[in-house]
Amino acid sequence: MEVKNNNSEAIEHKLDVSVSPHIKDKATVQKVMLDVIIALIPAGFSGIYFFGIRSIYVILTCVIMSVISEWIMQIIMGVEVTVDDLSAVVTGILLAYCLPPSVPLWVAGIGAVTAIALVKNLFGGLGYNIFNPALAARAILVASWPVAMTLYIAPKMGSISLLDGIDGITSATPLTLIKESYNYLADTTNLDPEKIVQMKRNILDLGNKDLWLNLFTGVKGGSLGETSNLALLSGGCYLLIKKIIDWRVPVTFIGTVLIFSLVLGRNPVFNILSGGLFLGAFFMATDYVTSPVTPVGRLIFGVCCGLFVVLIRFYGGYPEGVCYSILIMNMLVPAIDKFTIPKTFGY
Amino acid sequence: MQTFRGGVHPPQSKYTKDKPVEKARLPKKVVIPLHQHAGCQAEPVVSAGDMVKTGQKIGESKAFISANVHSSITGRIESIKKGVSPIMRDGWCVNIEGDGTDEWFGSKETADVGKFSPEEIRQKIKDAGIVGLGGAGFPTHVKLCPPCDKKIDTVIINGSECEPYLTCDYRLMIEKSNEILEGLEIIKKAVGAEYGYIAVEDNKPDAAEKIKSVLKNKNDKVIVLKTKYPQGAEKQLIKAVLNREVPSCKLPLDAGVVVDNAGTAVAVRNAVLENIPLIERVITVCGSGISTGKNLLVRIGTSFRDVLEECGGLKKDVWKVIMGGPMMGLSQFSLDIPVIKGTSGILAMTLDERPVLQERNCIRCGRCIGVCPMSLMPNMLGLYSSRFMLEDGFKYNPQDCIECGSCAYVCPAKIPLVQLIRFIKGKKLEQMRKCKI
Ligand code: SF4
Ligand code: SF4
Description:
The complex is a heterodimer of chains A (347) and B (437).
Chain A: H1 2-12, H2 29-51, H3 54-76, H4 87-97, H5 105-120, H6 133-144, H7 146-149, H8 174-186, H9 193-204, H10 209-217, H11 229-241, H12 248-263, H13 268-273, H14 277-284, H15 295-315, H16 322-339
Helix pairs in contact in A: 2-3, 2-4, 2-11, 3-4, 3-5, 4-5, 4-6, 5-6, 6-16, 8-9, 11-14, 12-14, 12-15, 15-16
Chain B: E1 22-23, E2 29-33, E3 43-44, E4 51-52, E5 57-60, E6 69-70, E7 75-84, E8 90-98, H1 118-127, H2 140-143, E9 154-159, H3 168-175, H4 177-191, E10 195-201, H5 205-214, E11 220-225, H6 234-242, E12 257-261, H7 262-274, E13 280-286, E14 294-299, H8 304-310, E15 318-323, E16 330-332, E17 345-350, H9 367-371, H10 378-386, H11 390-394, H12 406-410, H13 417-436
Parallel strand pairs in B: 1-14, 9-10, 9-12, 10-11, 13-17
Antiparallel strand pairs in B: 2-8, 3-5, 4-7, 5-6, 7-8, 13-14, 15-16, 15-17
Helix pairs in contact in B: 1-4, 3-5, 4-7, 10-13
The structure holds iron/sulfur cluster (2 copies).
């Protein structure tokens, strides 16, 4: 008895007094980010498989430069260094995935520094940035080095050569091809009958199931990590199952593109499978910091992103609209949050 | 299955589920706070040196929202002095030195519900000093005095016990199901309600079955609810059982409902039918820091130290001792704290259970919004509270927060949301009161 008494006395001086709840969920920012990284791995492998070993260099450059710039920026700005939360790694990977595989490494590096230093840390760091860092950096790169940023190489499966890998033939992405076809046909001054037939065939081909399969698995030109919808979908499902992301954004985003393609008389399957739609819908539009926090807000956000993609793709100057649609919607997030405050219980 | 929106699923940890209620040793001395709940302190009616018997009144409620206090042992009043109670308020406490005889004051008589009018029932409950045994400890007779313009049609017995670890209500439902139903009939009679429900979470199917098997009144029903925290919060329970929403800043009786927890029903029954004042209660002693977890019937005023010792004492690396459950309980700094009427459990948690505490920026994941059972925006309330931007924060209805802790539980950034929201809630309530005057 005596011993026990001593024991409880000794403990008493160390008892922690703090407010409830005394137990907490195991989730931390770091674990959430780790899950996102895990979910991004399949898409990385598909990039390496289709575009060669060079993909690894691009990813590594982006990740390393992101982490270093986060670290340096936080020291310069005199705030707590939080590189260990892994959010810079996520940004690095996402940026790499939306660059063309042939991008010069220095361009990729500048992109990473821009994303972290400019778009993220200057706005106050994780939680305070307005724009998705990876997408904003990509937009800046496209404006600064348009040629390097739109030079796509054709996929050559499994050609894992240790060489540079840019030896692949440059090719248009499916979306560019289709955009050109529609533009050609719309312009009544183009009269080359052979070309008209060719363009019409391009558009008709969209109903081809083999093409769909290629688009789904990733045999197409495009950015490093966006081509394989299969890989992105499996990562996305992982995030949905682990409840890291909310179904609302990806479902409404992709659903809106599907429905509006249908309504506007374009091939809906082709439109959801091509371009960076899956990468954008599952990994970019769901970025916590730059998307709405309220459930209703997320629905609105997803639908509007989808609308902008359709508008840009069909009526805009670019073949691909995912990046810009999300960036545009990022700006509207504070307003969306404000107008979608849930109705409090009992009102 | 019936439930409410939001909520979380902490691990249930109901380790003491199969431990029948044991009677604790008679304490040698007790410290009985005269103030055990929101409301006013009871006035002492004894003085130092007096001899008291078990069940004798030692503190009387003078104000409306207050409750009588009775001696829980037989012995001599050693002193009446300031002391700490587990709810962190220092107030007057009656210290009683026991003589070991445990003689009862007055007679325990048995009676039948039919004998009493609603008025008499309320009086008996008031005399017995019964408060809600769920934790908040609101005086029960006050709850049973609805203003005459409010018609109460339903009484819900809260057997959901949604807090992890706690099993005292579960044991009562298994062991004292008849008493709970008798208590329900008494409460129904006191408020003139027609329907009675016993709400049990689906993780306690045997408790639900047990009560079902002894149900007699056809207006009473056992409702099985989804296991989810905070299922037992009054407003959430009413929503889940009846699909009625208690309006903001209103009470269950505004929705025509009275909610009492299972332990309270037993106490009510004992008070009305057997004249027994509230001098003991069942508590769950549990947690990784305890050698043998138990469900104990403990006299009010027994020190935590005595209770813990009876369960084999604390293990070495205890980190926190909590009164109540881990989600809403209060951590204690001393073991000399007495068990009070609202003590539903004593938990001892060891260091390895200590959660990650390092705080990060809000990453706007929205989880707190998804789980808030009151549909608030805890992230915004936390943000404005931490920046003292009170006026902005007031727009997000902090007064409706029930402090359940679900938001802080899920937050990956480990932001102490409950503390922050409690602060801004207090300010808002202050402002609301000022406006009313
Ligand atoms: S804001 Fe209040 S009511 Fe909502 S989850 Fe947090 S503590 Fe519970
Ligand atoms: S759960 Fe925490 S990190 Fe997530 S939105 Fe709420 S406060 Fe922010």
